[in-house]
Amino acid sequence: MKIKVSRWVLMVLFLASLGRLAQAQGQGGYQVGDVVSNFRLKNTDGSMVSLSDFTSSKGAIVVFTSNHCPFAKAYEDRIIALNNKFAGQGYPVIAINPSDPGTHQDDTFEKMKERSAAKHYGYPYLVDDMQQVARKFGAGRTPQVFVLQKNGAQFAVRYMGMIDDNPQDAAGVTKLYVDEAVTNLVGGKPVVTTITKPVGCAIKWKNQ
């Protein structure tokens, strides 16, 4: 009886430790309304890009994405369309790849450069090789979006979650979460749906 109790206690402690680990790795980041810290990451063109570089913008659509993930691939054209629609209205896309190339070879910096060139991205595609920016945001999946609104020199989170409600079929989308959020912000209106649960590939965190 004592052995069974001991094993049960050990199991509870083990599960609790897993929960704390999951929270530390990509969870518990920014919430809606939080001010985002500046970041500086390498772009596929070799330049360094910071959030503070977007001084003339009204905000930004920050997308954590990757090369290997089927969900990210399914959303790629929709991400490009979001930038084409909203960059000129002050809300450009900033794509960030936090995926570990040691786990997924398609996410090496060279592969990122190839993908950006092949698809003619009109926005920066940044490598978060230390995964610090993804952790700061609390990103857990690719793709996952954070719509930021600029207020003075600061950027605050106004929406976080999915791009829309149909990862598999763009023609079957009924809720354009990011589009609606940015459209409201551009029109001076509050965002109605501020949080959705992202659907995509889990970010594999590097061992530290």
Q: Top keywords for this entry?
A:
alpha+beta; 208 residues; two-stranded antiparallel ribbon; Glutaredoxin
Can you characterise this structure?
The protein has 208 residues and is of the alpha+beta class. It has one domain: Glutaredoxin. The protein is 32% helix and 21% strand. It contains five helices and ten strands, in the order αββββαβαβαβββαβ. The chain has an eight-stranded mixed beta sheet. A two-stranded antiparallel ribbon has the order 7-10. Helix 2 (70-86) links the parallel strand 4 (59-64) and strand 5. The N and C termini lie far apart (38 Å). Residues 1-24 form the signal peptide. This is Peroxiredoxin. InterPro entries: AhpC/TSA, PRX-like1, Thioredoxin-like_sf, Thioredoxin_domain. Keywords: Signal.
Task: Give a quick summary of the entry.
This protein is of the alpha+beta class and 208 residues long. The protein contains five helices and ten strands, in the order H-E-E-E-E-H-E-H-E-H-E-E-E-H-E.
Q: Numbering strands along the chain, what is their spatial order in the largest sheet?
A: 1-9-8-4-5-6-2-3
Radius of gyration in whole Å, from Cα?
18 Å
Q: What's the helix-strand series?
A: HEEEEHEHEHEEEHE
> Averaged pLDDT, please?
89
What is the annotated CATH architecture?
3-Layer(aba) Sandwich
First-last Cα distance: 38 Å
Number of strands: 10
Main sheet summary:
8 strands, mixed
Category from helices, strands and their pairing: alpha+beta
- Counting structural domains, the number is 1
Shape: globular
CATH topology (level 3) name:
Glutaredoxin
Low-confidence stretches: 1-6, 8-26
Kindly state the percentage of residues in helix: 25-40%
Count every helix, treating DSSP H or I runs of 4 or more residues as helices.
5
Strand fraction: 15-25%
- CATH superfamily, please? Glutaredoxin
**Quick one: CATH class?**
Alpha Beta
Keywords: Signal
Organism: Dyadobacter fermentans
Signal peptide: 1-24
InterPro entries: AhpC/TSA, PRX-like1, Thioredoxin-like_sf, Thioredoxin_domain
